[in-house]
């Protein structure tokens, strides 16, 4: 019998940095709303990033690189 672990919906700062290609935390914070386009959620003292919003950010950057964005 296999136990299924639920898919992560939120990533911590280190995990979000890794997911975005290994950027540093300072770069992530500069991209975090309200300064930047990536929203975050605060739970107590923790800052967490929704996976779907990180994917949207990546898709937007990919579209911009192809000339479909800014």
3D structure, described in words:
The protein is an alpha+beta fold and 70 residues long. It has one domain. It contains three helices and three strands; from the N terminus they run βααββα. The chain has helices spanning 13-19, 25-31, 51-65; strands at residues 10-11, 41-43, 46-50. A three-stranded antiparallel beta sheet has the order 1-3-2. Strand 2 (41-43) and strand 3 form a beta hairpin. The longest helix is centred in the last third of the chain and has 15 residues, at 51-65.
Secondary-structure topology with pairs:
Layout: E1 10-11, H1 13-19, H2 25-31, E2 41-43, E3 46-50, H3 51-65
Antiparallel strand pairs: 1-3, 2-3
Summarize, please.
By secondary structure, the chain is of the alpha+beta class. Helices cover 41% and strands 14% of the residues. It has one domain.
Task: Looking at this protein, list some descriptive labels.
3 helices; single chain; alpha+beta; 3-stranded antiparallel sheet; 70 residues; globular
């Amino acid at each position: 019998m296999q136990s299924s672990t639920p898919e992560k919906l939120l990533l911590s700062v280190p995990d979000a940095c890794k997911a975005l290609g290994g950027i540093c935390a300072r770069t992530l914070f500069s991209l975090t709303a309200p300064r930047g386009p990536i929203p975050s959620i605060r739970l107590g003292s923790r800052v967490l990033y929704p996976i779907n919003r990180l994917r949207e950010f990546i898709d937007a950057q990919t579209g911009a690189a192809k000339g479909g964005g800014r």
